[in-house]
Every structure is written in structure tokens, then in C-alpha cells.
UniProtKB/TrEMBL annotation:
GO terms for cellular component: plasma membrane. The keyword Cytoplasm does not apply. This is Multidrug transporter AcrB. The chain crosses the membrane at residues 15-33, 40-61, 67-91, 112-131, 143-167, 202-222, 534-553, 560-578, 584-607, 628-647, 653-684. It holds the Pfam family ACR_tran. The keyword Transmembrane helix applies. PANTHER family: CATION EFFLUX SYSTEM PROTEIN, PTHR32063. InterPro entries: AcrB_DN_DC_subdom, Acrflvin-R. GO terms for molecular function: xenobiotic transmembrane transporter activity. Keywords: Membrane, Transmembrane, Transmembrane helix. SUPFAM superfamilies: Multidrug efflux transporter AcrB TolC docking domain, DN and DC subdomains, Multidrug efflux transporter AcrB transmembrane domain. It comes from the Bacteria.
Amino acid sequence: MGYQSDLVAASVKSFLIELVEAVVIVILVLCITMGLSSGLLMGAILLLTIFGTLIGMKLMAIDFQMISLGALILALGMLVDNAIVVTEGILVKSQQGMSRRKATLNTVSQTAWPLLGATFVAVLAFAAIGTSQDTTGEFLKSLFLVMAISLFLSWVLAITLTPLFCVQFLPKAKTNRTADPYTGKLYQWYRNILVICLRHRILSLVILAGTLVAALVGFSQVEKDLFPQDSRNQFMVNYWRPEGTRIEEVSKDLGQLEHLLTKFDDITATATFVGQGTLRFVLTYEPEMPNTSYGQILVTVKDSEHIDRLISVLRRDLPDRFPDARIELKKFRRGPGEGAQIQARFMGQDISILRKLSNQAEAIMAEDPLAIDIRNDWRQPVLTFRPQIIEAAARRLGITRPQVADSLAMNFSGKVVGIYRQENTLIPIKIRAPKEERESVDRLHDVVVFSPDTGSAVPLQQISSELKTKWEDPIIRRLDRRRTITAGCNPLHGTADTLLSKLRPKIEAIPLPPGYALEWSGDYEDTIDAQEGLFQMVPVFFLAMVFTVVALFNGARQTIIIFLCLPLVSVGVTAGLLITGQPFGFMCILGYLGLSGMIIKNAVVLIDQVDAEIRSGKDAYAAILDSAVSRLRPVSMASITTVLGMLPLLQDIFFVGMSVTIIGGLTFGTVLTLLVIPILYALFFKVWRTI
């Protein structure tokens, strides 16, 4: 038996370990690049931010779970951005001869509002998921809340405790009023490259545009997948006998199957459910509706890495042992989504035509060797026996059709006549005919129906002429009040999008009679619904981001420069996905939205520095060069800490897509911030070399 509480505790423990690893990585990077004192100072600010975020989570009733802890790890690199900018400004001004107190006040007054605006933009980038009304939005809402709490708290600490710690604990810097603090080889190397790019600005942008086109072409080769499989050490065995099979036969088969599973050394426990699935013990589990021909076995293994091999062996052997059954071996998923991953939904009126259309779609699926678990949700027709009631004879005896149906149900299925309470358990009391009287259809005429007029029981054969047999559909599903049958399958390996791209043209070529329609559901519909729920609010928050940036700079050109960089980030994203082989899913979309906030935040800090230096009277061309060089370390450090802080999430199957998206996009985005933004600034403001 597997205990959900143990699995949750193990998952939380794993995430806490990843969180500690990420914190240690970020602090080590800060100590190496910013110096031991500065690194420890910002590490202390990072820890205070984390502790404050945990308090905020407690106040907002956000539990420790996969999404909230993953959000905290995702935010780590961003949490030190503000502190890096403030600490860097204080250090540079102190080295230039300014007193520590004056340098602190000057830096905070200069950067507080730009940093607040940049932080607000970063939070807005995640806001769309927090306000999505889709099930995916509900699933990921805590990610937005944790990001918002931690980022705003990081800004508060950056302009309060960070300056205080700098004044109290940083060692006194060597002052030189005339020396340039940016004379190191790295600074000079970057300055020379920037001068070349500014000199050949048009050529640089053309090269960048070509790179963007190549990235868009490369993105077409990236596989698509809504959510990945779960890494829990359990999988499901869904067992279906032909519709109408007695539940006792299904129970007997499941007993044999369960005995077979216990022979595998890798399997530690099984739990069997007959007639329906278990209770929803995890958010992404969708219980099956009650059905006598259905059963499910939850299988627990020693290690989740063994599941694929076990499923492969069972998928090969079980059809020979249970030839009359359809057996589906299914791993848990880490996100919303139910049923088959690929579903073709046919809607219309005539049952036979819908059956024919579904059979055609299932035949197309069966032709592809990568399609497995092929079925439809109406299942098989069932042979029924219908006594033909003689209306005149029934009326003379005062017998109605509902009374006949009630008698037949009591004789064969049983009728609940009471409830027996055993402690806290309620057991239904059923009355039905003895076993030998209900095992054969030949005994159907012997069923008696009570006549209220005569006060006696009347054999069914007295009020019926014959028994007619007919194949009927016991399950008829409807969607929007229209009869709907859904043919579905799963991919043997790879993503559902890859298999769908092969099946879709063939299934859509099936001729549909007038009044009939085909729709795609499964992962395809889930993806559309999730994206619609997400992007429904994206325009609102995107405009809020634009207005925030416009308010910061009181100008449109700076805003245009910043937002022109966002599409170019796809170069790094595409490269990261292609190199790692990760599919592009919903978490990658969310990662891209978060990435846009990070890029905007870095760009805001750089452009604000350029504008400040120009306002101080410096030549525009020199201001661009000096500002870019002065922001080399803060921007690079912000990117490096975020990228390295994401490394632990590469081990998590749910967050790996988002991690790759942010790591690839932010790595290239740093180049955008340090090279492309100065080029665009010079181009938009018509700045040419004067020195």
C-alpha cells in the first residue's frame, strides 16, 4: 500500500533540498564575484527575504507543496538583483572618494524608484497565471503569489537593510577620486566590443534579425507537450472487460492480475478497486465513473525509474493472458489533463453514423505503430432482451410498464429495501431471486409481477407475447446537448503533439455527413484552454508593464527599446530547448513570461543609468558607453545568480522545461541587455560617436 502523506513528505523534502542547494549556489557565486564581504552581506539579505516570504506564505495560507517551493527556487536568482544593484552602487561611489553614508544615500535615492518599477514589472510578468480562471491557473496560482511576495520583499530589504548592512559591515574601500573603477581587462574587453557594435549598428541589428529568423525556424523542430509525466513511484493499471460484463468476473480477473504483479521484485504494493476508481487522492487524478466492467490497480514500485521498464514488459505480456480485456498502463501526470492524450470528438444525432465515424478514426489510429490504448468512450453495444408487453392484458390487471421494470430489476440486479448500520458503515439490504433463478434468460418468463387489482402475483408470460433481442448502446454521452462520441489513443513514446500531427490530416479527411462535426480534445484542447485562460489576461498585464515603464522614463522611446528586446529572447529559448531535447509545454510558456520580466528589469536599470548620466551633462555617446560598462557586473551577476539558482530545478521533471527556458533565454538576454539595448538607444536617439 502506498501512503499519499509519505509521498508528499518525500516530495517536499526533495524540494527543500533543492532550495538549500540553490541558496548555497547563489551565495557562493556572490562571494566569488562580488568579494567575500559583499557576498555574505547579500547572502544574508537573501536568507532574510526567504524567511520573510515563508511568513507571508503562512499569512496567506499557502502550503508547502511542489508549486510554491518551486516558485521560491525560481525566485532565488531574482531576489538578489536589487541588492546587487544597491551594493554595487555603494561600492563604486565609495571607491571614488564619497563617504560611505553619502554614497549609500545617493545610491538609494537614485535607484529606489527604478528598482521598484522594475520589480513591479517582474511581478506583472507572472500575474497572468495568478488570475487565470482555467484549471491550470488554479493549479499554478501559488507560483504567482510566492513570486509576488518574495520580489516585493526583496525590494523593501534592498533599500532598507542592504544600505544599513553596507554602512555597518562592509570594509572601508580604498579611495581614489581620479581612478576609473572600470579599468579591468573584462571591462575594457566589453567596452571595445560595444564600440565596434555601435560603429556598425545597422550590421549588428541585421545579424541579430537573421539569428531571430533562424531561431523561429528552429522552434518548429521543438516538440510540444502540455505537462510532463509525474516522477511518483506509482502507476495505474486500468482494466476493461466488454461492456456489460458482470462485476464478479472483473473481480476474478483483477485477482489474477494482482497475483501476477506481485511476482515482480520491483513492485512493492498494489491496491485494487473493482467497479470504479478510488477517491481523488491527488489533484491530477481523475476517478473513473462506476461501471461493472471496469477495475483499476494502483501499483507502487521501489523506484520511479523502474516504471517504464515494467510498463513495457506488462504491455507485451498482458494481452496474451487476458485476451478479452483492454488494459491501459498509465503513469501519473504532473498537471491537469484527463483521459486519452489524443481525442477526436464526433458530434451529431444518429447513433449508427457516430459509431461509424468513430470506428473510422480508431482504424486510422490503429494503423500507426506509435498509437496505443485505442478506444472510444461509448464502449461496446450490449445485447438486451425485451419482453413485448401485451398492453390490453396488462391494463386489465392494473400493471404498468414501470412495475414490470421494477420486478425485473429486483429479480436480476436486486432492489434495496433497507439499510443496515454496522458502527460507522452503512450496508444496503437487497432483495433478489436465488442464483439459479437469475442466471438464465430462459427463466425470464417466470418472473412474477404484483397486480394491485387482483392482489396477487402474475407471471410475466401472462402479460407478454415474446422476448426480443436487440443490441443497444448502454453509454451515450452528450456535449452541449448533442450526442458525442470520442475516439482516443495515447502515444507509445514521445509527445502527443508529434503523434497528433500524423493522425490529424487523415482523421480530418473522413467525410462528415451534414449536421455532423469533428473537434479535437485531449491534450490539444487542454493546451488551448490553458493558453486561453492565461493569455486572456496577458494583454491587460502587458499594458500595465508598458505603462509602468513609460511612467518610469516619462518617454516612449525608452519603452520601445526595452520591449523590442522581448521577441529576441526566443533565440536563447529555442537553443536551450533544442540542445536539451525538452518539449515546449505550458511551463515553458510561463517561463517565457517570467523571463520577459527579468529582461525588462535589467533593461530598466541600464537605460535609467544612461538617462541619469546624460542629465548630469555628460556627452550622450560617452554616457551610453560608461553606463553600459558600469552595469556590466550588476547585470551579469543578476543573470548568473538566476541561471545557476535554476540548476537544481533541472532535476525536477515538472520544472525542467521552465528552467531550460529561463536559463537559455536569460543567457542570451544578458547579451541583449549589454549590447543590443545600447545599440537601439543610440539608434533611436540618433547618438553618434563624438569621442
